[in-house]
Model the fold of this input.
Amino acid sequence: ALLSLEHIGEIYVRYTIDEGKPTMLRQIVVEHADKGKTLDPALCKQVIGELAAELSLHLEAQGCTAVIDIPFREDDVVATRDNLREFLFKKGRPRAVVDYTTVPTGDHEVAAHYAIRGLDQPKLGHIIIRGNFRTRSSVIRGELAETSPRFAEGQPLTADGLADAARRLRATSLFSAVNIDLPDVATDSSVVNAIVRVEERYDYLAQLEAGAG
Done:
């Protein structure tokens, strides 16, 4: 801290920083979170490909491990955990849980480990519609069946299908709000029922108010 010679009562503070040797990210490892279980090689390839896209990298994958040599920016790598979970939901794995840890591998070297569990692929069960007092359920089901991927009984449950179903119903202009609940997604059931809740839009061409006193 240096006293100011020009402005009495003021102090100037100077920081001298030694950056030191950078920490390098040497490996990305994808593994099953449950001991004794291994991930399908095809799934490993998809996950590593998604991580490569998120980090804007070209990764050389060897099974469920990718060799890498870039400066380790922790915030960027940690952010991929939630993005990876969303990616797995898009692939029909809505219960996927991704744990991330950093493992030192040498002097100023680390490996990023992703442990994944909850990889079952449930199907859509019953689709229950609530809140439609004027719109027939068959109209709503018809719109849902036209989504891509299809939002229908027996079809895989994916994030894209769920979002497209809600978006398609809103696009009809019949409803002021559309929400889709999945009460069974947190269970271990092989099917997930869906509750489609709509709020119908009431459009009046004219309104007459009268009063007497």
